[in-house]
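B., you asked whether I could sanity-check this one before it goes into the benchmark set. Here's the sequence:
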Amino acid sequence: MNKELMDALNILEKEKNISKDTLLGAIEQSLLQACKNHFGKADNVHVAINPETCDFKVMADRTVVEYAEDPALEISLVDAQKINTSAEIGDTVQVEIHSREFGRIATQNAKNVILQKIREEERKVLYDQYYGQEKEVVTGIVQRVMGKNVSINLGKADAILSENEQVKGEEFKPTERIKVYILEVKDTPKGPRILVSRTHPGLVKRLFESEVAEVQSGIVEIKSIAREAGSRTKIAVWSNNPDVDPVGACVGKNGERVGVIVNELRGEKIDIVNWDENPAILIENALSPAKVIAVMADPDEKTALVVVPDYQLSLAIGKEGQNARLAARLTGFKIDIKSETKAREAGDLYDYEDDDEYYEDEEEYGEDAEYAEESDEIAETGEETSDDGAEDAVTEQDSEEAPEEEREEAAAEEE
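And here's what the prediction gave me:
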């Protein structure tokens, strides 16, 4: 058993996370390269390695000739019979090659092949590890500030936090621990190039998944997120369990859960609202904390008109339009906000009070609701409401309109 080689392979497998089979393949490749450098060719050379004991042999197939002119491919009959007594001219015999016979240059090249393979595999392992963590949140340590970029150590590799992915106003100190969102992992000859972010909405989503058990288990879903990094974030949540309040689950007792996330985001405000399939209700929720009078949404055009009380207009729009802007991103609707007074002047707000009174009468009188309404009007004006009075009024009107001859005939009949 080649104990030294086995111990070395075990250490490399543990520290570099490179499989033993890959390392054995690198050794095989290095031995073939050494043979090529030593003999000038290696087409007839093959390496046999026992993965259990790490013992290896390098064998070369050589043709038996009477006098060998090319020692790399041929062997004399006399030398061949020393290996195999029954060997004859034209036969092929396998000759063992001892690695100790390789020259210094061949040995150095073999070493370089092994090291190069180890480096390649190490880069590949790192790339696969962090590529699998794309769109995830990891904890890193600030290494150094490189101009406007920041280098973050993620454990086995360094990541780059570019200026565009930094929250304005945030400052980082060396050795400080921060959470970052892995945007992209690229494979390069120098190793994986990892790009991370502190502004991506996915950072907030992953933080809620790590802090809120209901979100992690799927009971509560985060349907939509709109974020202006460093200032405010709105998230819409939905519960798959009617007994679980999605907003309460995300906020936590006394705001503990959301408080942890706010601290990680260094004081960024977070609004948590209920998701609803009805666009009007969703838009109303998204404009929280402002109160809404009416929402007229067009799902096809993705537009909505929202009417709010006059004193709530500035709150609904928000500072520099932030609240309305985030609500539009959260819902996917283009939102037009108007005060109640402006909406009434423009005819956008329909007054439903008269309709409500009509429907109340209809419930009380049924089909005679209209007649009841007219009776109420007559009662208010003091006019007669009896049926006889109505008939007398009709008869009097008809008699005035009748021709003179008919009136005379009627007078004669009375006499």
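One thing to flag: DSSP finds 16 helices and 15 strands in the chain. Otherwise nothing jumped out at me.
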